Amino acid sequence: MKIKQGDYVLLYLDKRRKYLVKVVPGKEFHTHKGILRLDDVEGKEYGDIVKTHLGVSFRILKPLLLDYVKKFKRGTQVIYPKDAALMIVMAGIGPGSRVVEAGTGTGVLTALLAHFVKPHGLVYSYDISKKNLENAKRNLKAVGLDRWVVLKLGDVTEEIEEKNVDAVFLDLPSPWLAVENSYRALRHGGIFVSFSPTINQVEKTVEALKSQDFIDYDAVEVILRRYKVERGSTRPETFMIGHTGYIVFARKP
Amino acid sequence: MKIKQGDYVLLYLDKRRKYLVKVVPGKEFHTHKGILRLDDVEGKEYGDIVKTHLGVSFRILKPLLLDYVKKFKRGTQVIYPKDAALMIVMAGIGPGSRVVEAGTGTGVLTALLAHFVKPHGLVYSYDISKKNLENAKRNLKAVGLDRWVVLKLGDVTEEIEEKNVDAVFLDLPSPWLAVENSYRALRHGGIFVSFSPTINQVEKTVEALKSQDFIDYDAVEVILRRYKVERGSTRPETFMIGHTGYIVFARKP
Amino acid sequence: MKIKQGDYVLLYLDKRRKYLVKVVPGKEFHTHKGILRLDDVEGKEYGDIVKTHLGVSFRILKPLLLDYVKKFKRGTQVIYPKDAALMIVMAGIGPGSRVVEAGTGTGVLTALLAHFVKPHGLVYSYDISKKNLENAKRNLKAVGLDRWVVLKLGDVTEEIEEKNVDAVFLDLPSPWLAVENSYRALRHGGIFVSFSPTINQVEKTVEALKSQDFIDYDAVEVILRRYKVERGSTRPETFMIGHTGYIVFARKP
Amino acid sequence: MKIKQGDYVLLYLDKRRKYLVKVVPGKEFHTHKGILRLDDVEGKEYGDIVKTHLGVSFRILKPLLLDYVKKFKRGTQVIYPKDAALMIVMAGIGPGSRVVEAGTGTGVLTALLAHFVKPHGLVYSYDISKKNLENAKRNLKAVGLDRWVVLKLGDVTEEIEEKNVDAVFLDLPSPWLAVENSYRALRHGGIFVSFSPTINQVEKTVEALKSQDFIDYDAVEVILRRYKVERGSTRPETFMIGHTGYIVFARKP
Predict the structure, then answer these.
(1) pTM (global) more than 0.90
(2) Domains detected in chain B
(3) Which residues of D touch C246 (CB under 8 A)?
(4) N or C: which end of chain A has fewer CB within 10 A?
């Protein structure tokens, strides 16, 4: 399958230097190792090599969803794959699931949810910012996932219009204010999932869940430790992300 | 949707006491809080309550895949959701993916993979033990995922028959011996994922990946910390699972 | 130096089976590996071997302070060496320091403090329970550290009589109530240290410190991870203590 | 006690901006908040305030040993307080202990050991670099701890001259090569402690300890997690030091 105009490619030099680039005719991509002409990429196969004007080789890779999603990051804090992964698997969703999400933000979690509910499921994603929704729309279109997402301007602490959904995912400053609406939106056995940076948010959310007849709640934190692996001198990385946020799960009985 | 004979239900008392039970006419389920007659469950709806002969109430819940999967555990060590979740999301698989897995074991990871590649994907799961494969077959049938899995008696360190697969998942004592075959089985851009309890296995696997032209490798560990959340006295749980295993990722260029 | 009557010895079989025993004439010590006659220990040297009636060898070791301190544990929660160590080093105390501590509890932290302020320093240890103080007194006498400790029946949230002390160590349910008195008791540049199991206690304590003109405060947690080290199969222990408590430090300007 | 010429003071603006400065007449200290004249510091008391030419207030604090020790850091990797603390407490040393250490490096651990073995103990600190020893000598003199340290030019993998010491502390690239000499240098019941960044060093050291008749060995890692404590929005710090090194303990029987 040859690469054609408009395709996105991942130009890979090494683990820390890989770039997601759109193949636009006549355009150049500037790296620390020289300039890549995107015309040289067109017509190549994934896995092939392209050289900068300084002769440095880059591999042309087919981007994964996570490669795209990292490009969504624009200023605001986004959910990390380590957290999104546990949230998705513990929520029990999969192909065909109907899911409510709020807030949309840049659409990182939205894209992952859409990816996993394909081809028959749907993600209803709420945000109170029109600008966020427009940005997310662009991002979702770029990764071809927009048709599994209904972007909605609205505040889930006031109303969630959907009923009988399989899961509700919240990434909001005050998730506890949306617990009651989440309960109403969920089907029996449906899963509530919330992500929050501070322990105080967790405390308030769990309290709201308890008073709302949710059961089986759990509050956890996912810590990812990376290793520097070298024969005879293997060790964890010196610097690490020590904290992103806590995840709260609960089940509607 | 009323519960009928042969259905599985999750009988829920509290967070630590929830039981996956098959509704068989005339059968009883004995708990510390008294006896439940499964005939009392039949005909009820999910979310309803059933009482033991001592008058203690259990909620009847529709089990999630993870509730089933916990029942797969039989003696041998199984992959935890925290690890499986990251492996699945980082591997970039989803609905439609073709995946090779080894070894099958009790089928916990197999079931999760099958769940996420539905409805058009397929999991080729190898094990060298006939007994494991038979047990896994039963487990996969029980959760209705058997038709997305091809169980294969065989040793992936000797041969992987599939080509152009999207990902290879290894949970083997010597994953490094299967690196070369994994490379051949993967499509360009496909992802290698391996899970191992010891750091020495990680070291050998990463070395094999390097000498096999894999790129973008990463070795990580997922640490899950649970919290005891009570208003005014929130704290991490005293006892925790300190280690399950390391995960190695790599990409075929 | 020969072992004599009344000495304490550590009888060591392996890492998990080591016993602190007082050498009493005519007494026997029963182990899973047979009976040891303490008369056989008397007159031996540290490092020698003694055998049970079943012929199993135990090493006779001179106990360290930490070996004694583990024996202090009686029901109530005690401070772990990992936490006590950081508290002591960060507090900047050492030989000659004058330290206030509350509550005494079984005297574990008291003993460690006394050990490190020897031979010219002093620990003033408050507890509101007469029973605790009596128990701690016995424990401190047993390890020969009682003369560096002044045990005081009293409530530090009401009064700390000492002035110009180098550090205050609190292990109390409501440490924030003792912040003001700690401030008065400390010398300029003196260190406040508090240990608490819940994050809410930390929040309240730090708030009290801020409003009391303390500076340079820090809230930390020490996580100790143990490894199972075997050539070619090294890994962290599966089960670990996930949480003991948080430590708060501050400095009086 | 008034501050006089030649004294060291800690000039404190906030948690992240505190500076260890020697009071030299006529000298100025330049900060981002303006210039401090050290003549203004002389004659003040600890706890007093001094102002920059821009009117910003700094507190004058009496430095703790750890404040000095942080200044020792010069290029080479040094032991963190979290690790040094556990090593010292677990080694059972205290006032009066005789300790062997290698390598000296900048003298951070040396200073802490000297501080805790005062006033009757002694630290024998080996290094193979004359330059290191000279640097350490200056550092130890600056903190007034030089008379409890014997700095020795030598390689402990070849010889340790001392006998019957209470503990041996190793921070060397190949600690396993010094295990035999450590055994000979230790008294019965004495403690071996080693600090190493990689897991492979740990594996080799533990193997050497096993074959050398050491007992009661333990390999651990100290992870320090800092918290950002604010009323209502408390959370762990986003960035953390994920790894410094592993600590190995063992006991000579």
Answers:
(1) yes
(2) 8-63 (3.10.330.20), 67-251 (3.40.50.150)
(3) 227
(4) N
